[in-house]
Amino acid sequence: MSATLVLEPAGRCCWDEPVRIAVRGLAPEQPVTLRASLRDEKGALFQAHARYRADAGGELDLARAPALGGSFAGLEPMGLLWALEPEKPFWRFVKRDVQTPFAVELEVLDGHGPEAGRLLGRAVHERDFMAPGVRREPVRAGRVRATLFLPPGPGPFPGIIDIFGLGGGLLEYRASLLAGHGFATLAVAYYDFEDLPKQLDSIHLEYFEEALCYMLQHPQVKGPGIGLLGISLGADICLSMASFLKNVSATVSINGSAFSGNRGIHYKQTTIPPLGYDLRRTKVAFSGLLDIVDVRNDMVRGCENPSMIPIEKAQGPILFIVGQDDHNWRSELYAQVACERLQAHGKEKSQIICYPGTGHYIEPPYFPMCPASFHILLNKPVMWGGEPRPHSKAQVDAWKQILSFFCKHLGGTQKRAFSKL
Questions:
Q1: Domain span holding position 376
Q2: Is 49 an annotated catalytic residue?
Q3: Is residue 418 domain-resident?
């Protein structure tokens, strides 16, 4: 090996931070291929590659040199991460154990040929999901099954409850990253985890009220209110919590619908009936994948539909993050109808941030886009929408918008600044 891979920051950093990748010791204008690979906790392989040409001094800096082809093209300093693709079809990129980093293997190969050229250099870059000093505490309080992530320092810290969508289980990677930015964040499971119900037949907000009370009573969490962050069905649960429960200061909906979709939402004596769906409206895309974007029933009576969450009752502000190419459902339309409902009830219109070319799974920065995966109810692969490049840029911006929104409305001060490449 004759080339040296230089990483900045060297060694390791958090997943939501950019890394600067450079190669030294090449021949002047030498053609090379850079390859990135990692395996998740289940052994699934993800890979990306791009072709480059060194400068006249034999150096290559991905912040200045455009990729000439491969998994992506153009000036994309983080392309080797966001362009990672699974070897196994329809496999979603997920971090299952946030206490260990993802180890990204970076290789420099000679030439631009279809076959791998001679190995010139290699480095391993570790990307953490818990910033130094972040504490992880499993929570088994009453019925609540969750994990609390606390930032470094004595606290108390502004609090956030983080809820994912229909997949079930307990996903912690977003909460652990948020703790690195100064937020005490509770990742909440609500079915298919430990002794929770295996199936989700209906949604009872009393369970989530317990989680909210847990946060409000925690000595490391400062009040007077809590922030809520959810994606997909998790976003609709957050919007329901904001509408029915007290002490919610701010809510972020990532590609939510603001409707009770396939199952009823219950709180005390109130039930929001499901909007319902018809699988006969499923389409088959040119790729052969199922497209479920139109399976939900029509919104008769628009913003006054009885299946709509009464978000006009929410006390704190709401931020809608929308992927305009979401194929799970029509997120942009739903966000617009939600704002119409707010205005119809004399409330201030919420902020909607729309991202073109962006699909359903808007994740933290540099997560590879999930274009399609198996739907837990259909047990068949469905398309989620999005184009890799704009989707990746949307994830970076959405993360900054979410952090800024919570800092503003929860009284936080961002602990970790984003470096610029």
A1: 135-410
A2: no
A3: no
